[in-house]
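Researcher: Next sequence.
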Amino acid sequence: MKKFPEDIDHKSKEEIKQYQEEQLRDILQYVNKNSKFYSEQFKESNIDINAIKTLKDLQKLPFTTKDDLYEQNDDFICVDRKQIVDYITTSGTLGDPVTFAMTDADLERLAYNEYISFKCSNGNPEDIYQLMVTLDRRFMAGLAYFLGIKKLGAGMVRVGNGMIELQWDTIRRIKPNALVAVPSFILKLIEYAEANGIDYKNSSIKKAICIGEALRNPDFTLNTLGQRIKDKWDIKLYSTYASTEMGAAFAECGQGIGGHHRPELLITEFVDEYNNPVKDGEPGELVITTLGVEGMPLIRFKTGDIVEHHTEACKCGRNSMRLGPVIGRKNEMIKYKGTTLYPPALYDILNDMKGIENYIIEVSTNQIGTDDILIRIATNGYKPDNFEKLIKDRFRAKLRVAPTIQFESKEDINKVKFPELKRKPVVFIDKRKK
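Model: Next structure:
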């Protein structure tokens, strides 16, 4: 198994750069030999990978896009099927999930990433983490946290998502001191505790690793969601940012001023809408090149997430780059209950369901500052008593989350969907605060 330099983020910027350039040369040789997608791309573009020696030279290579992953998924796999030990999927722009094939070494890398991330967020072997995330449904996140906490040597209790009564019963019985949860779910825990006379402020919980939703504004002050939690429950909140494609995370330290980059796992770039590099502190789309991945390495993958990055050293002693919260989404990306969605994935489900004649999807910002999805539906006469439940169950099966459903008349839907001045039907309405 590959051994990663755990202290690389405390090295000088020049040492970090030198290490990454060595790893970059290795990964380019690896994908050129083992990846059908990249070997063909390099050949078609007349790229000599031996000429790519520095981080700046990366700009000579084409980007990898989400569409590439969807349309040529298998061509990214670099190992024999016998070496694949876990298959993970993520929701997709075209409605079908992208599969990520992971080897035993990739799972070790994932464990290392979360181990070092928990350490960054002041984790230690004395902690007991309550996992309020699922380890099944082909998710990477829950498995990653499990492996990382195990590697850290800390305790954990796997409750899963939802089940608020069981969450509080577990806290009472086992007395964990830390949560791993989606921030909006922490608010639901608080609401339940207040409604049921639970003295949550004097519980064993002292901190929370928050996933899937941003806690902070670009200036690192708490956003609406983060502040609502802190106003109710004065526990330490740590923000994280990750994705299945990266197989890595940007975790906050105790300073709370951005997620720390793991330079041994990712090479990062930040580009504007014209694909030109942006300066420190300016919004740009995060582009990543994965290091140390065997199954499906990615070169210059455009994440679609708009963020600001900061390169000045942190008071915690780390010299690695820090990533601010996601402040925008390319095109129509939706972050809903910790899951990244795209409208076509919703369209495919609705178009495939008996009884749905017409629909409109509205995305808005709710009271806690996160995305909400409302689907306004007109039926064709077929509408069983449990139709709303059937629709939500289909969404949960396909995307793992269920939006709000609202039934309306065909006339009302058509007025909005077919406005006189529009040449095309309006199916997606973005009402989010910009």
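Model: Residues 335-431 form a domain with the GMP Synthetase; Chain A, domain 3 fold (CATH 3.30.300.30). The CA atoms of residues 249 and 310 lie 16 Å apart.
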